[in-house]
Amino acid sequence: MSSTSRLAFLAFALGVCCAAPGRAQSAQVAEARDTPTDTETGFLQSRGAHVRFEAASKIPDNAIVALQQRQISTVPFFTSSFAYEGKVFPFTQVGARPQSGGTTEIPTQIMAVAMFFEGFADDNGDPIVMASDPILARVLASPNFRVAPYPNGVTQFADAVQRAQFNRIMAQDWHTLLGAPQVLKPVMIDVPRGMAKVYRNRATGVLYAVVDSAFFISQLNTIVQLQEFHADSLAIIVTANVFLAPEADNKRCCVLGFHTAFESGQKDGVPQVQTFVWASWIDQGILATSVADVTPLSHEISEWMNNPFERNQVPAWQSPASPGGCQNNLETADPLATLPNVGYPVTIGDFTYHPQTQVLLPWFTRGSSDSWDGAFSFPDETLATRPSQPCSKLEPSH
User: Fold this and answer.
1) Per the domain annotation, does 231 fall within a domain?
2) Tens digits of per-residue pLDDT, 367-392?
């Protein structure tokens, strides 16, 4: 990957400009430290915050042509289309065609990123570090990578969603699974004073932070430059209890994750297209909803599986969770993301996870549903009980 494309793709994803790396801004002298601000459960929502996710493609025109000709190196994918009001809507999804059967296993690489917050200390005077490597074991044991029972069978969460939406046409042995992740060496980001606000939930003692979007994206740019991600793998970075907002403003919070795709270079004249996910683990008690633990990661993985290159357009729709705003991209999690009960409980071992319920393809196509049980959403079929509703005033893509 060229240095220019590496530095541009994440900034493009969230529409922010790059900031200087955190360590370059680190204070070199001792200074007074603040303790985290104590808050009640639901504090961010009380300040006007909304759960948000982002998505964007940074694939150049030449790679798009190669993608259309299937002359690229990337994750396995198939193409199909549907028609609505005389217009054809093509789409690309991860895996093999449902009718073909068999199991497609996608290699996965995952990295835990910790955040060190300059200018903050706990009640004992110790520096505050929000590390995601302690929860990495929970992430790896989650429904994103482990099998669990769903109404339509025992499998990984995203595969259960795919099998639900292609229930009528799929071969019974058809699966799209994530392989056991290759765990990369964790990385620490030094967050200078002023680039974040740190809070503590009064009831649980859990720490969380609102971090400046531009700063965080600049740090991910640096990480991506230094890592050897593989184009045929899904690359994942996880943080713990980190929320993004412009200028760390909690009133404009909170982005919890995003997925994107970008050209990472060429090999033997063949473009390499990398697909990429960032998501934050959320401890229980921070948000006054069912959004917790792997809700953001499951949100992004299912959307990546349904729209890996961020080029799938559908008839403009409005979210049943927040009517009025319009999108025209095939993002299966966005329509339900702000509902308070969007997290679907799945127990594995001694822990109950909350992956996010998704809308299914018939929700976008606006016909009758031929998905599992005639559903428009899954696994919670009650969250969307009819097709998407049209609208005309498009919002920026999310």
Assistant:
1) yes
2) 999 999 999 999 999 999 999 999 87
Q: Give the number of residues written for the chain.
A: 398
Give me the number of domains the chain comprises: 1
CA atoms within 13 Å, Cβ hemisphere of 352: 6
Structural domain contains residue 371: no
Mean pLDDT over residues 195-217, rounded?
95
Residue 96 has pLDDT above 70, yes or no: yes
Nearest to 15 by CA among 240, 203, 246: 246
299 within domain boundaries: yes
Contact 304, 370 (CB under 8 A): no
| 224 compared with 83, residue with greater pLDDT | 83
Plot region of 151 (φ>0 → left; ψ -120 to 50 → alpha; else → beta): alpha
What mean pLDDT is predicted for residues 145-153? Answer: 98
Tokens of 156: 């990984």
Cβ pair 213, 14 in contact under 8 A: yes
- Residues with Cβ within 8 Å of 38's Cβ and at least 6 positions away in sequence, in order, are 199, 200, 202
Please write the tens of the pLDDT for every residue from 10-23.
443 444 433 334 44
User: CA angle, 112 as apex, 58 and 300 as ends, to 5°?
Assistant: 45
pLDDT tens-digit series, residues 34-51: 899 999 988 888 887 778
Any domain includes 161: yes
CA distances from 338 to 121, 260, 299, 342, 356 (A): 32, 21, 12, 7, 11
Print the domain residue range for 163. 3-22+33-77+92-312
